[in-house]
Structure formats: structure tokens, C-alpha cells
Amino acid sequence: MAGYGGMQPGIILLREGTDQSQGKAQLISNINACQAVADTVRTTLGPRGMDKLVFDGQRVTISNDGATIMKLLDIVHPAAKTLVDISMSQDAEVGDGTTSVVLLAGEVLKQIKPFVEEGLHPQIIMGGLRKAAQVAVARLKEIAVDIGAAGNRDMLETFAGTALNSKLISNQKSLFCPMIVDAVSILDMEPAPDLDMVGIKKVPGGDVTQSFLVEGVAFKKAFSYAGFEMMQKQYTNPKILILNVELELKSEKENAEVRITDPGDYQSIVDAEWQIIYEKLDKCVDSGAQIILSKLPIGDLATQYFADRNLFCAGRVDASDLKRVAQATGGHMQSTVNDLTPDVLGECGEFEERQVGEERYNVFTKCTNAKTATIVLRGGSEQFIEESHRSIHDALMIVKRGLMSARRSEEHTSELQSP
User: Which position among 98, 303, 372, 374 bears the catalytic label?
Assistant: First the structure.
């Protein structure tokens, strides 16, 4: 130490320019920032809550959903960002109560602020909050109500109605609550209902009361070629082939070069291309399917070919819709048309192409293995439909939690009764 003239070398732990703040002043600053965020969403809570209009520089969003508003606020304060995180966590885990958790956290911080100002150590404050949390949980268990075996339907509809109370579509609870309970009840309960199997389709125009539930799959008609209108649009007990195969003639790549010595050889190349596509189409027809769906394009040649044989086809179908079709009909997606066997085909009771507003929808109902559902939402404007979608999502999540709680209650009861 004497070699340095009694001075210690400086140790730099933080990046240059880093702002460092600590102590009582910083704690109070953090609390104030969190309270400001809580005050922003406070007026959206409850049946009398008001919507917020948020413009993010690109699009306008009108909503009173706490998670949506918190996500759009683009908060930069590091402490206040924790409120965004708990709101997102609540939305992912429970689905509803995203505003409530923010306000609850803000109110807790408001109550402990005087203790911080008086100099009480944060560890002591945290000890008190942990004890308060234990008391609160114990009280909730005391007032909890058993929803009954396999989930009491009236109780589940009450759950959905409570979630919709503060939403834009609260006046249509009598329409949407049974629809939501039916949609979740259709799903496979093992290990837990997968809400990805509930498709929500938004069709602008019309009245919200024209929304309906399909106990199966419905999706918007994909892009179609000439010949599509000649196809049959309704089937009873059809077989369904689901493909990940392109059924159209491909043009040669740019700058492709084919060297031939005889002009007749070129025709043989063209004939080979046509032969390949016709072989694919013949194999699809020979499989016995009346409906052919593909994730990849189905060209005009294939469309006309299937139409001439009273078959229905649709290409460029969204992957999530194809997954739900497979789940509902028992079909399996094929990446080749070779060796198609009857067990890879799906089946449904009814198929039709239905007019919904200004759109055409392909609707599969009475599915033998139906463990998926589709809710078609109608509304006068894009903003209204988007907010309805968020409201339906919250209610679906709550009903799902209710069914899972009922199942756990049944399992617990059976364990107690078993010798």
C-alpha cells in the first residue's frame, strides 16, 4: 500500500455514464411512478369503466382491457415496468383481472409509502406484506364456493358473464356466455383445454348479435382460381384429405437452361410436367376424398380437374385452420400424395360453404372427433370487433380455469374417499 503513496486504485463496476440512485428518495420515486401508472388505468375498472384510446404512432386502439393498455403505453421507467409485467403475467395465466392486479399493486405501494418516508427498513415492510398475503389467501379459501362436479354450467356461465361485465359486449352476455361455455366444453380436457383449438374469426359488418358458434371448424374461403364456382358447395359425410403439397404447374425458373438436340425433345419435357401433375391429381381422386385441403397453392388446372369430378378443393389454407380441421375430423396432414390410405382421411357430418356478411366461409360441422370450435364474431367496425375479440378471450380463459378447478376438486374428493 505504501508503494502507491497511501492511495488505493479506483475500481469501476458500472458502465461509464450509468446513473446510480439509491436510498429513501429513490424508493419514493419508484412508488410515485407506479402510482402514476395505476392512476392511468384506474378509470377502466368495473362495469362503469371507460375505454381508453391509445395511438402508438401507427394505429389507434380503443380498449378497456388492462393488459392491452399496459402493453401499448410503452412505459420506460424501470420500476413502473414491473406493473406491465404483472399485468402480462395475469393475462397469460388467468386471462382476466389484468387491471385489478395493477390497481392492487398500486394501492399496496400507496399504503406503504408513509412507512418508507418515516425510514422503516424495507425488509420489515416486506415481512408485514407477506403476513398480510397469508391472511388474504386464508380468507379467500374461507369464502370460496365449490362449483360442483364436472363444473356446474350455470356457475361457468356466471364466470363468463362476470368477465364480460366491464366489456363492450356486456349487453350481449345472454348470447356470448352460453357460446363461450360450449366452446370450452368441446375441447379435450387432458391434460388441459387448449384454447388454440378455439378459432375466433372476425367478419366486419352486420350486428354483433349475428355472431355464432360452430361446433367444428370454419375458415374464410382461400384464394381460388377459375373453375371454383363450378364446384359442389355442400356435402354430407364427406371424406377429407389434408395436404401440405403444391398442386399446380410450376413455371421454369428464371435463366433456366435446357439443352436439346431435337426440337421434339422439348415437347417430351412439357409432357412430362403435365404427366406429373395429372398423376398427383389422380391419386387424390383415387383416395376417395370429396374435399381436398392444402396448405400450399392448388392451381387452376387442379381446381377445374376436381370440379369436373364433383370434388371440393381449397389451397393456401392457414396452418392453424388445417390443424383444427385435422383435430376435428380425425384426418392427418400428408406431405405426399403417394400411398394414401383410408385411415389418413378425415370425416365430418356436414360441410358447406356459407355466406357470412361479404365473405364466404367453409364450415365443417357434426365432426366425429370434434374437439375444436370456432366463434364467428360480427360487428360494425374493426375497432369494435377487435375489442370483442379481447373480451371473448378473457371469458374463455376464465371458463377454462373454472373447469380445471372443478376437475382438481373432483380428483381431491376421490382421493379422500378412496380407502
Answer: 98
